[in-house]
Amino acid sequence: MCGITGWIDWNADLTKQADTIEKMTRTLELRGPDASGTWLSQNCAFGHRRLSVMDPANGAQPMVRPARGGDDRDCVLVYNGELYNAPELRRELELLGYRFRTSCDTEVLLLAYVEWGPECLEKLNGIFAFAVWHTAEDKLFMARDRLGVKPLFYRREEGRFFFGSEPKAILAHPDVPAEIDAEGLAELFVIGPARTPGHGVWRNFEELKPGHCLQYDRNGMRKYAYWQLQSAEHAENVNQTAEKVRELLADTVERQLVSDVPICTLLSGGLDSSALTAFAAEYYGRTNQGNVHTFSVDYADNDKHFHAHEFQPNSDGPWIKRMNEYLSTIHHPKQFDTPELVAALEAAVLAKDVPGMADIDASLYLFCREIKKEATVALSGEAADEIFGGYPWFQREDALQAETFPWSLATDLRESLLSPELKRKLRPREYLADRYAQAVAEVPHLAGEDETQRRMRRMSYLNVTRFMPTLLDRKDRMSMAVGLEVRVPYCDHRLVEYVWNIPWEIKSTGGREKGILRNALEGVLPEDVLYRKKSPYPKTHNPNYLAAVRDCLLERLEDPSCPLHSLIDVDWIRQTAAATDASSHLPWFGQLMSGPQLFAYLIQMDYWLRHYKVKLVL
């Protein structure tokens, strides 16, 4: 994995801008700690930071190869990602006469683009964000993987175009101001820590949406979707469906275990991570690669303070031990305490460039930092709940009937948080309603569906296109901030396309969440793990954390120069903080974020506004 950035300018000689493109590239050093490269021409400058996973000795970027037609027609590539079908594509290209200089997938991608142009996207199986510059045509082409696992942001202005894996690369350009307008604040206070697809939060920034590509030349910019979910009839019965799901998942795990550097899995003892680890262990055994290394996260004194509830019915510890012994993995438990979690809130902001999921981000950052000491690549179970329908809100009638996102039901609370002036400018209820209506209008319903089927397809679509990107972005940014590549097998587009059209009555077979996945994993996992009730990524239940973030926030609000004063209702926050018991159970966002996370989010907001010297344009 890597970090990419670039700058197109029709009115300047970019060969004289080496210092600027190098500055932009340096901001992505943590994403790619192993190597750095830049490429400059009259109107285009590219930068790349490399994390070496395949063919570490070769594959330097930006990579240049002759375009079709030869002569001075070159294609220049910067690429962040991994192609899991690179061997098949390589063989196909060799049959067409291409000769390879490296064994890395970067060259496979570049030559696939040289041969097939934008149509190469149809052939790719992987996670990626890349940009290609055509030297003879003065044309930029960019694309992002189907599910948006790898990030890509851009900013367009008169005669100029900037892009980067993260906003920080674009913000490093001296002509790009760190500004936020009312819509950006609405994303942070009304939608956040989720984000509307395509929205860059920073003023005049956009995100290239998942499954989209973009062309920019002297005639302007054109964007279009090359992939989207398609609804179709599902013909297989339960047993046939389970067999297909198992076949697809086993295949994608095996593809994603290919690496020239140490690889591991993240293991919580839940269904999703246990399945990936079981397939990995089987593959390692079959190929004589020894035992799989696994990692888990927990928090100091969580065993003393854990209380079961609807969203977190049991703790992971005993289940991790169960799977560790069942699969004979080499297990590495990691544990963090309150002071570490609070201190890491700022590092999480720097990784993401905006406030995020508070200690949920911070703990993942710390976890990935520890994993990086012993591995370079990890497999993680993100996306299974969105794709297979695993969250409690798939089963709750109030969430199914709510005319809003099921992870963001606390509209009154969010309104109460805002200062009266900001509330008038953001119109939070209208903003949320507009974003929800936009999402619902996109759902590709199938003719002949009854109301229940339509409702479940809508819920699935919201989860795949609105909630899942939040978790994928979190996983990418926290892991890449320490140079760890995390692969997400449940995001294989073949699996997603297939499961999308499984009817809800089959998807929930046996009356259980993710019923068809459990059915598919019969014989792969022990029975008790197979039917364990879902428990999400663990968070700290230590009351010391609530006290720490509450006190830290209140202390910052005492500072007259605190930038939060103009944005939030400070009196409401103080009253809420004083009601200790109530503030620990505020249903602020999703299934993990309540009072402590709200306070931590505001701490992140304060730090972000100060550190980035954010200018509000309202």
From TrEMBL:
PROSITE patterns: GATASE_TYPE_2. Its EC number is 6.3.5.4. It is an enzyme of class 6 (ligase). ATP binds at L266, V297, S380, G381. This is asparagine synthase (glutamine-hydrolyzing). It comes from Cohnella terricola. The active site is at C2 (for gatase activity). The gene is asnB. Keywords: Amino-acid biosynthesis, Asparagine biosynthesis, ATP-binding, Glutamine amidotransferase, Ligase, Nucleotide-binding. L-glutamine binds at D105. One of its GO terms (cellular component) is cytosol. GO terms for biological process: asparagine biosynthetic process. The lineage of its organism: Bacteria, Bacillati, Bacillota, Bacilli, Bacillales. GO terms for molecular function: asparagine synthase (glutamine-hydrolyzing) activity; ATP binding. It catalyses: L-aspartate + L-glutamine + ATP + H2O = L-asparagine + L-glutamate + AMP + diphosphate + H(+). PANTHER family: ASPARAGINE SYNTHETASE, ASPARAGINE SYNTHETASE (GLUTAMINE-HYDROLYZING). The record marks E382 as: Important for beta-aspartyl-AMP intermediate formation. Pathway: Amino-acid biosynthesis; L-asparagine biosynthesis; L-asparagine from L-aspartate (L-Gln route): step 1/1.
